[in-house]
Amino acid sequence: RALHAIDLAGRERVVLRVPGWLSLKDINGEGRVLLARENETFGIMVRTPEAAEERNLSWYSWSILGDISPDGKTIVFSEGGEAGEDRWGVYLRNTDGSPAVRLGDGVFGALSPDGKWVSSVTQYRENEPVQVQLLPIGPGETRRITKGDVEVHGPGAWLPDSSGLVYIAEAQDASRRMYLARVDGGAPQPIDTGGALSKLRALTGPQ
Question: I need a labelling partner for 36 at 20 to 30 A (CA). Which of 2, 64, 153, 163 fits?
Fold first, then answer.
Protein backbone atom coordinates (compact mmCIF):
# COMPACT_ATOMS: atom_id res chain seq x y z
CA ARG A 1 0.00 0.00 0.00
CA ALA A 2 1.12 3.55 -0.69
CA LEU A 3 -0.31 7.03 -0.14
CA HIS A 4 -1.43 8.66 -3.39
CA ALA A 5 -2.71 12.17 -4.10
CA ILE A 6 -4.77 13.42 -7.04
CA ASP A 7 -5.46 17.03 -8.01
CA LEU A 8 -8.58 18.54 -9.59
CA ALA A 9 -7.04 18.10 -13.05
CA GLY A 10 -6.85 14.35 -12.52
CA ARG A 11 -3.08 14.17 -12.11
CA GLU A 12 -2.00 11.47 -9.65
CA ARG A 13 1.26 11.15 -7.75
CA VAL A 14 2.73 8.95 -5.05
CA VAL A 15 3.22 10.85 -1.79
CA LEU A 16 4.71 8.11 0.33
CA ARG A 17 5.65 4.49 -0.12
CA VAL A 18 7.10 2.44 2.74
CA PRO A 19 7.54 -1.27 3.50
CA GLY A 20 4.49 -2.90 5.03
CA TRP A 21 0.83 -1.88 4.95
CA LEU A 22 0.05 1.82 4.99
CA SER A 23 -3.45 2.98 6.01
CA LEU A 24 -4.86 6.50 5.73
CA LYS A 25 -6.76 7.41 8.91
CA ASP A 26 -7.49 11.12 8.46
CA ILE A 27 -6.55 14.28 6.52
CA ASN A 28 -7.05 17.93 7.41
CA GLY A 29 -7.69 20.99 5.28
CA GLU A 30 -4.00 21.76 5.00
CA GLY A 31 -3.20 18.37 3.54
CA ARG A 32 -1.61 16.90 6.65
CA VAL A 33 -2.47 13.22 7.03
CA LEU A 34 -2.68 10.75 9.85
CA LEU A 35 -1.20 7.41 8.78
CA ALA A 36 -0.73 4.01 10.32
CA ARG A 37 1.89 1.49 9.29
CA GLU A 38 0.40 -1.94 9.94
CA ASN A 39 1.97 -5.37 10.12
CA GLU A 40 -0.28 -8.39 10.54
CA THR A 41 1.17 -11.80 11.34
CA PHE A 42 -0.10 -15.24 12.35
CA GLY A 43 2.04 -17.55 14.40
CA ILE A 44 2.13 -20.92 16.15
CA MET A 45 3.28 -21.32 19.74
CA VAL A 46 3.69 -24.82 21.18
CA ARG A 47 4.66 -26.13 24.59
CA THR A 48 5.09 -29.87 24.93
CA PRO A 49 5.06 -31.78 28.23
CA GLU A 50 8.83 -32.18 28.01
CA ALA A 51 9.52 -28.47 27.52
CA ALA A 52 9.65 -25.84 30.24
CA GLU A 53 8.79 -22.97 27.90
CA GLU A 54 6.78 -22.33 24.76
CA ARG A 55 8.48 -22.70 21.39
CA ASN A 56 7.66 -20.53 18.40
CA LEU A 57 7.04 -22.87 15.46
CA SER A 58 5.98 -20.18 12.99
CA TRP A 59 7.71 -20.51 9.64
CA TYR A 60 7.20 -17.21 7.82
CA SER A 61 4.70 -14.48 8.67
CA TRP A 62 1.33 -16.22 8.17
CA SER A 63 1.56 -19.65 9.79
CA ILE A 64 -1.87 -21.14 10.57
CA LEU A 65 -2.14 -24.39 12.51
CA GLY A 66 -4.17 -27.14 10.84
CA ASP A 67 -3.59 -30.29 12.91
CA ILE A 68 -1.38 -31.91 15.52
CA SER A 69 -0.49 -35.57 15.87
CA PRO A 70 -1.93 -37.55 18.81
CA ASP A 71 1.52 -37.83 20.40
CA GLY A 72 2.03 -34.07 20.14
CA LYS A 73 5.27 -34.45 18.21
CA THR A 74 4.15 -33.22 14.77
CA ILE A 75 2.08 -30.32 13.51
CA VAL A 76 0.54 -29.55 10.13
CA PHE A 77 0.13 -25.92 9.16
CA SER A 78 -0.56 -23.62 6.24
CA GLU A 79 1.79 -20.82 5.32
CA GLY A 80 0.79 -17.80 3.29
CA GLY A 81 3.45 -15.26 4.12
CA GLU A 82 5.21 -13.10 1.57
CA ALA A 83 7.99 -15.68 1.27
CA GLY A 84 5.42 -18.07 -0.20
CA GLU A 85 5.27 -16.08 -3.43
CA ASP A 86 1.46 -15.74 -3.36
CA ARG A 87 1.07 -19.51 -3.13
CA TRP A 88 -0.24 -20.99 0.08
CA GLY A 89 1.58 -24.13 1.11
CA VAL A 90 0.97 -27.01 3.52
CA TYR A 91 3.86 -27.85 5.84
CA LEU A 92 4.82 -30.56 8.29
CA ARG A 93 7.02 -29.75 11.27
CA ASN A 94 8.15 -31.54 14.39
CA THR A 95 7.48 -29.79 17.68
CA ASP A 96 11.15 -30.16 18.63
CA GLY A 97 11.81 -27.15 16.41
CA SER A 98 13.45 -28.93 13.48
CA PRO A 99 12.89 -27.31 10.06
CA ALA A 100 9.48 -27.50 8.42
CA VAL A 101 8.95 -29.63 5.32
CA ARG A 102 6.75 -28.26 2.54
CA LEU A 103 4.36 -30.99 1.37
CA GLY A 104 2.77 -29.05 -1.47
CA ASP A 105 0.48 -26.21 -2.49
CA GLY A 106 -2.83 -25.80 -0.68
CA VAL A 107 -4.40 -24.54 2.51
CA PHE A 108 -5.38 -26.11 5.81
CA GLY A 109 -4.53 -29.71 6.53
CA ALA A 110 -5.55 -32.78 8.47
CA LEU A 111 -3.10 -35.54 9.37
CA SER A 112 -4.24 -39.11 8.68
CA PRO A 113 -4.32 -41.42 11.72
CA ASP A 114 -1.66 -43.68 10.18
CA GLY A 115 0.64 -40.69 9.60
CA LYS A 116 1.00 -41.32 5.86
CA TRP A 117 -1.09 -38.47 4.37
CA VAL A 118 -2.22 -34.93 4.96
CA SER A 119 -5.54 -33.95 3.47
CA SER A 120 -5.80 -30.34 2.38
CA VAL A 121 -7.80 -28.19 0.01
CA THR A 122 -6.66 -26.50 -3.16
CA GLN A 123 -6.16 -22.77 -3.09
CA TYR A 124 -9.09 -20.43 -3.56
CA ARG A 125 -8.95 -19.19 -7.13
CA GLU A 126 -11.54 -17.37 -9.20
CA ASN A 127 -13.76 -19.70 -11.26
CA GLU A 128 -12.10 -22.80 -9.78
CA PRO A 129 -14.01 -24.83 -7.18
CA VAL A 130 -12.08 -25.80 -4.07
CA GLN A 131 -11.14 -29.49 -4.01
CA VAL A 132 -9.73 -31.99 -1.51
CA GLN A 133 -6.25 -33.32 -2.18
CA LEU A 134 -3.95 -35.77 -0.42
CA LEU A 135 -0.33 -34.81 0.17
CA PRO A 136 2.01 -37.73 0.89
CA ILE A 137 4.31 -37.67 3.89
CA GLY A 138 7.41 -39.08 2.26
CA PRO A 139 7.79 -40.34 -1.32
CA GLY A 140 4.72 -40.17 -3.52
CA GLU A 141 2.56 -37.85 -5.58
CA THR A 142 -0.31 -35.57 -4.66
CA ARG A 143 -3.73 -37.11 -5.25
CA ARG A 144 -6.90 -35.16 -6.05
CA ILE A 145 -9.77 -37.16 -4.59
CA THR A 146 -12.77 -34.94 -5.31
CA LYS A 147 -14.43 -33.82 -8.53
CA GLY A 148 -14.78 -30.34 -9.94
CA ASP A 149 -18.56 -30.13 -9.93
CA VAL A 150 -18.80 -29.33 -6.20
CA GLU A 151 -17.14 -26.82 -3.88
CA VAL A 152 -15.54 -28.46 -0.86
CA HIS A 153 -15.72 -26.93 2.61
CA GLY A 154 -12.55 -27.84 4.48
CA PRO A 155 -10.11 -30.75 4.22
CA GLY A 156 -12.54 -33.24 5.68
CA ALA A 157 -12.31 -35.65 8.60
CA TRP A 158 -10.38 -38.90 8.38
CA LEU A 159 -11.94 -42.28 9.02
CA PRO A 160 -10.24 -43.94 12.01
CA ASP A 161 -8.51 -46.53 9.78
CA SER A 162 -7.20 -43.85 7.35
CA SER A 163 -9.03 -45.52 4.45
CA GLY A 164 -10.98 -42.42 3.47
CA LEU A 165 -12.29 -38.98 4.21
CA VAL A 166 -15.72 -37.61 5.00
CA TYR A 167 -16.28 -34.04 3.89
CA ILE A 168 -19.02 -31.51 3.16
CA ALA A 169 -19.39 -30.04 -0.31
CA GLU A 170 -21.73 -27.56 -1.97
CA ALA A 171 -23.24 -28.22 -5.38
CA GLN A 172 -23.97 -25.58 -8.01
CA ASP A 173 -27.56 -25.28 -6.74
CA ALA A 174 -26.15 -24.28 -3.31
CA SER A 175 -27.27 -27.54 -1.68
CA ARG A 176 -24.82 -29.12 0.75
CA ARG A 177 -24.21 -32.81 1.22
CA MET A 178 -21.79 -35.07 3.01
CA TYR A 179 -19.54 -37.29 0.91
CA LEU A 180 -17.20 -40.20 1.49
CA ALA A 181 -14.04 -40.48 -0.61
CA ARG A 182 -11.72 -43.47 -0.38
CA VAL A 183 -7.96 -43.02 -0.49
CA ASP A 184 -7.53 -45.91 -2.93
CA GLY A 185 -9.65 -44.19 -5.59
CA GLY A 186 -13.17 -44.27 -6.91
CA ALA A 187 -15.78 -41.55 -7.19
CA PRO A 188 -16.83 -39.87 -3.93
CA GLN A 189 -20.16 -41.20 -2.68
CA PRO A 190 -22.88 -39.00 -1.19
CA ILE A 191 -23.88 -40.37 2.19
CA ASP A 192 -26.14 -37.66 3.55
CA THR A 193 -29.14 -35.55 2.60
CA GLY A 194 -29.39 -33.48 5.75
CA GLY A 195 -27.80 -32.88 9.13
CA ALA A 196 -24.35 -33.26 7.61
CA LEU A 197 -22.34 -31.81 10.47
CA SER A 198 -23.86 -33.97 13.22
CA LYS A 199 -23.52 -37.12 11.11
CA LEU A 200 -19.93 -36.24 10.24
CA ARG A 201 -19.01 -36.13 13.91
CA ALA A 202 -20.84 -39.35 14.64
CA LEU A 203 -19.05 -41.20 11.85
CA THR A 204 -15.50 -40.00 12.42
CA GLY A 205 -15.47 -39.39 16.15
CA PRO A 206 -13.79 -36.39 17.82
CA GLN A 207 -11.39 -34.58 15.50
Answer: 64
C-alpha of 35 from chain center: 31
Closest CA to 155 of 188, 106, 95, 191: 106
- Residue of 144, 151, 88, 152 lying closest to 117 (CA atoms): 144
- The string of pLDDT tens digits covering residues 57-112 is 999 888 999 999 999 999 999 998 665 556 789 999 999 999 999 999 999 999 99
Angle, CA 186 vertex, CA 183 and CA 192 arms, to 5°? 85
Q: Which of 112, 40, 42 is nearest to 78 (CA)?
A: 42
Query: How many whole angstroms separate alpha carbon 2 and alpha carbon 22?
Result: 6
